[in-house]
User: What shape does this take?
Amino acid sequence: MKINSAEIVISAAKPNQFPGGPFPEVALSGRSNVGKSSFINTVLGRKNLARTSQRPGKTQTLNFYFINERFHFVDVPGYGYAKVSKSEREAWGKVMEIYFQEREQLKGVVQLIDLRHKPTKDDIMMYDWLKHNELPVLIIGTKADKIPRGKWDKHTKQIKEGLEMADEDKIVVFSSETGQGKDKAWRELSSLLFDN
Ligand code: GTP
Ligand code: MG
Assistant: This one.
Protein backbone atom coordinates (compact mmCIF):
# COMPACT_ATOMS: atom_id res chain seq x y z
CA MET A 1 0.00 0.00 0.00
CA LYS A 2 1.31 3.42 -0.89
CA ILE A 3 0.99 5.78 2.07
CA ASN A 4 0.28 9.34 0.98
CA SER A 5 -0.77 10.71 4.33
CA ALA A 6 -0.75 9.51 7.91
CA GLU A 7 -1.54 11.63 10.92
CA ILE A 8 -2.73 11.25 14.48
CA VAL A 9 -6.31 12.46 14.80
CA ILE A 10 -6.90 12.12 18.52
CA SER A 11 -5.79 10.34 21.65
CA ALA A 12 -9.20 9.42 22.96
CA ALA A 13 -9.76 8.81 26.66
CA LYS A 14 -13.50 8.20 26.33
CA PRO A 15 -16.04 7.11 23.72
CA ASN A 16 -17.42 10.58 22.92
CA GLN A 17 -13.95 11.48 21.63
CA PHE A 18 -13.86 8.70 19.03
CA PRO A 19 -13.78 10.22 15.52
CA GLY A 20 -16.99 10.23 13.52
CA GLY A 21 -17.16 9.56 9.79
CA PRO A 22 -17.67 6.45 7.69
CA PHE A 23 -14.04 5.35 7.50
CA PRO A 24 -13.24 1.68 8.20
CA GLU A 25 -10.66 0.97 10.87
CA VAL A 26 -8.56 -1.78 12.43
CA ALA A 27 -7.45 -1.81 16.05
CA LEU A 28 -4.03 -2.96 17.22
CA SER A 29 -4.10 -4.97 20.40
CA GLY A 30 -1.50 -6.83 22.40
CA ARG A 31 0.47 -7.10 25.58
CA SER A 32 2.50 -4.05 26.63
CA ASN A 33 5.84 -3.87 24.86
CA VAL A 34 4.91 -6.45 22.20
CA GLY A 35 5.54 -3.93 19.41
CA LYS A 36 2.17 -2.35 18.52
CA SER A 37 3.46 1.17 17.99
CA SER A 38 6.51 -0.14 16.14
CA PHE A 39 4.22 -2.15 13.87
CA ILE A 40 2.21 0.97 13.02
CA ASN A 41 5.36 2.96 12.25
CA THR A 42 6.85 0.17 10.13
CA VAL A 43 3.81 -0.57 7.97
CA LEU A 44 3.23 3.15 7.43
CA GLY A 45 6.91 3.83 6.75
CA ARG A 46 6.90 6.64 9.33
CA LYS A 47 9.65 6.58 11.94
CA ASN A 48 8.02 8.25 14.90
CA LEU A 49 4.32 8.61 14.19
CA ALA A 50 3.24 6.17 16.90
CA ARG A 51 5.32 6.69 19.96
CA THR A 52 7.28 3.64 21.06
CA SER A 53 8.24 3.39 24.66
CA GLN A 54 10.74 1.79 26.94
CA ARG A 55 8.12 2.27 29.64
CA PRO A 56 5.49 -0.43 29.15
CA GLY A 57 1.87 0.50 29.55
CA LYS A 58 2.47 4.16 28.93
CA THR A 59 -0.14 4.41 26.20
CA GLN A 60 -3.35 5.02 28.18
CA THR A 61 -5.57 6.32 25.40
CA LEU A 62 -6.98 4.98 22.17
CA ASN A 63 -4.80 6.68 19.56
CA PHE A 64 -6.52 7.14 16.20
CA TYR A 65 -4.34 7.51 13.08
CA PHE A 66 -5.96 8.60 9.82
CA ILE A 67 -4.32 7.08 6.74
CA ASN A 68 -4.65 8.23 3.11
CA GLU A 69 -7.86 10.01 4.16
CA ARG A 70 -9.47 6.61 3.83
CA PHE A 71 -9.10 4.51 6.98
CA HIS A 72 -8.00 4.54 10.62
CA PHE A 73 -5.50 2.53 12.63
CA VAL A 74 -6.27 2.52 16.34
CA ASP A 75 -3.43 1.93 18.80
CA VAL A 76 -4.99 0.36 21.88
CA PRO A 77 -3.32 0.40 25.34
CA GLY A 78 -1.36 -2.78 26.01
CA TYR A 79 -2.99 -5.34 28.26
CA GLY A 80 -1.40 -7.34 31.03
CA TYR A 81 0.18 -4.34 32.67
CA ALA A 82 -0.39 -4.31 36.41
CA LYS A 83 1.03 -0.94 37.47
CA VAL A 84 -2.24 0.96 37.34
CA SER A 85 -4.79 1.03 40.15
CA LYS A 86 -7.74 -1.33 40.20
CA SER A 87 -10.25 1.49 39.66
CA GLU A 88 -8.23 2.87 36.76
CA ARG A 89 -8.10 -0.59 35.24
CA GLU A 90 -11.85 -1.03 35.61
CA ALA A 91 -12.60 2.34 34.05
CA TRP A 92 -10.37 1.42 31.12
CA GLY A 93 -11.96 -1.97 30.81
CA LYS A 94 -15.31 -0.25 30.29
CA VAL A 95 -13.99 2.10 27.60
CA MET A 96 -12.37 -0.83 25.79
CA GLU A 97 -15.52 -2.91 26.02
CA ILE A 98 -17.60 -0.12 24.53
CA TYR A 99 -15.01 0.37 21.81
CA PHE A 100 -14.75 -3.28 20.74
CA GLN A 101 -18.44 -4.07 21.06
CA GLU A 102 -20.08 -0.94 19.71
CA ARG A 103 -17.72 0.71 17.26
CA GLU A 104 -19.35 0.30 13.87
CA GLN A 105 -16.30 1.38 11.88
CA LEU A 106 -14.21 -1.41 13.45
CA LYS A 107 -13.66 -4.08 10.77
CA GLY A 108 -11.16 -6.27 12.53
CA VAL A 109 -8.48 -6.50 15.18
CA VAL A 110 -4.77 -7.01 14.72
CA GLN A 111 -3.58 -8.95 17.73
CA LEU A 112 0.18 -8.87 18.19
CA ILE A 113 1.97 -11.69 19.95
CA ASP A 114 5.71 -12.04 20.55
CA LEU A 115 6.79 -14.77 18.13
CA ARG A 116 9.42 -15.98 20.60
CA HIS A 117 6.98 -17.05 23.27
CA LYS A 118 3.86 -19.11 23.77
CA PRO A 119 0.70 -16.98 23.98
CA THR A 120 0.18 -15.78 27.56
CA LYS A 121 -3.08 -16.23 29.51
CA ASP A 122 -3.92 -12.62 28.63
CA ASP A 123 -3.28 -13.26 24.92
CA ILE A 124 -5.60 -16.27 25.00
CA MET A 125 -8.28 -14.42 26.95
CA MET A 126 -8.18 -11.49 24.54
CA TYR A 127 -8.35 -13.70 21.46
CA ASP A 128 -11.27 -15.70 22.88
CA TRP A 129 -13.08 -12.51 23.81
CA LEU A 130 -12.61 -11.04 20.31
CA LYS A 131 -13.89 -14.25 18.71
CA HIS A 132 -16.82 -14.30 21.13
CA ASN A 133 -17.66 -10.82 19.85
CA GLU A 134 -17.40 -12.08 16.27
CA LEU A 135 -14.53 -9.81 15.29
CA PRO A 136 -12.13 -10.95 12.55
CA VAL A 137 -8.62 -11.23 13.97
CA LEU A 138 -5.25 -10.98 12.24
CA ILE A 139 -2.38 -12.35 14.34
CA ILE A 140 1.03 -10.71 13.96
CA GLY A 141 3.99 -12.63 15.41
CA THR A 142 6.38 -9.80 16.37
CA LYS A 143 10.15 -9.53 16.82
CA ALA A 144 10.88 -12.31 14.31
CA ASP A 145 14.40 -10.90 13.92
CA LYS A 146 15.13 -12.24 17.40
CA ILE A 147 14.77 -15.87 16.35
CA PRO A 148 16.46 -17.76 13.51
CA ARG A 149 14.45 -18.07 10.32
CA GLY A 150 14.60 -21.89 10.53
CA LYS A 151 12.52 -21.75 13.72
CA TRP A 152 9.77 -19.46 12.46
CA ASP A 153 7.46 -22.32 11.48
CA LYS A 154 7.76 -23.97 14.85
CA HIS A 155 7.00 -20.71 16.66
CA THR A 156 4.08 -19.94 14.34
CA LYS A 157 2.61 -23.33 15.15
CA GLN A 158 3.10 -22.68 18.86
CA ILE A 159 0.94 -19.56 18.58
CA LYS A 160 -1.73 -21.25 16.44
CA GLU A 161 -2.03 -24.12 18.89
CA GLY A 162 -1.81 -21.95 22.00
CA LEU A 163 -4.71 -19.80 20.82
CA GLU A 164 -6.59 -22.67 19.17
CA MET A 165 -6.83 -20.28 16.23
CA ALA A 166 -9.87 -20.37 13.98
CA ASP A 167 -9.11 -21.59 10.43
CA GLU A 168 -10.24 -18.31 8.89
CA ASP A 169 -7.78 -16.24 10.94
CA LYS A 170 -4.33 -15.51 9.49
CA ILE A 171 -0.94 -15.21 11.14
CA VAL A 172 1.96 -13.14 9.78
CA VAL A 173 5.59 -13.45 10.90
CA PHE A 174 6.77 -9.87 11.36
CA SER A 175 9.73 -7.73 12.32
CA SER A 176 9.86 -3.98 12.72
CA GLU A 177 13.64 -4.20 12.66
CA THR A 178 13.91 -5.82 9.22
CA GLY A 179 10.52 -5.12 7.64
CA GLN A 180 9.89 -8.88 7.38
CA GLY A 181 6.20 -9.58 6.75
CA LYS A 182 5.27 -6.02 5.79
CA ASP A 183 3.76 -6.90 2.38
CA LYS A 184 1.84 -9.87 3.68
CA ALA A 185 0.57 -7.78 6.60
CA TRP A 186 -0.73 -5.18 4.13
CA ARG A 187 -2.56 -7.79 2.08
CA GLU A 188 -4.34 -9.01 5.21
CA LEU A 189 -4.97 -5.48 6.53
CA SER A 190 -6.52 -4.44 3.20
CA SER A 191 -8.73 -7.47 3.22
CA LEU A 192 -9.94 -6.68 6.75
CA LEU A 193 -10.51 -3.01 5.95
CA PHE A 194 -12.08 -3.18 2.51
CA ASP A 195 -13.43 -6.67 1.78
CA ASN A 196 -16.37 -6.85 4.13
P1 GTP B 1 3.00 -0.18 24.74
O1 GTP B 1 2.61 1.05 23.98
O2 GTP B 1 3.75 0.12 26.00
O3 GTP B 1 1.85 -1.11 24.98
O4 GTP B 1 4.08 -1.00 23.85
P2 GTP B 1 4.00 -1.37 22.31
O5 GTP B 1 3.30 -2.66 22.13
O6 GTP B 1 3.49 -0.22 21.51
O7 GTP B 1 5.54 -1.65 21.95
P3 GTP B 1 6.58 -0.70 21.21
O8 GTP B 1 6.30 -0.63 19.76
O9 GTP B 1 6.73 0.56 21.97
O10 GTP B 1 7.93 -1.59 21.34
C1 GTP B 1 8.44 -1.97 22.62
C2 GTP B 1 9.93 -2.26 22.49
O11 GTP B 1 10.17 -3.38 21.62
C3 GTP B 1 10.73 -1.10 21.88
O12 GTP B 1 11.96 -1.04 22.54
C4 GTP B 1 10.89 -1.51 20.43
O13 GTP B 1 12.04 -0.97 19.83
C5 GTP B 1 11.01 -3.03 20.53
N1 GTP B 1 10.52 -3.71 19.31
C6 GTP B 1 9.30 -3.57 18.73
N2 GTP B 1 9.18 -4.32 17.62
C7 GTP B 1 10.37 -4.96 17.46
C8 GTP B 1 10.87 -5.90 16.48
O14 GTP B 1 10.22 -6.30 15.51
N3 GTP B 1 12.16 -6.35 16.69
C9 GTP B 1 12.91 -5.96 17.73
N4 GTP B 1 14.13 -6.48 17.87
N5 GTP B 1 12.48 -5.07 18.67
C10 GTP B 1 11.22 -4.58 18.54
MG1 MG C 1 2.63 1.59 22.11
Remarks:
- The chain has a mean pLDDT of 91.
- DSSP finds five helices and seven strands in the chain.
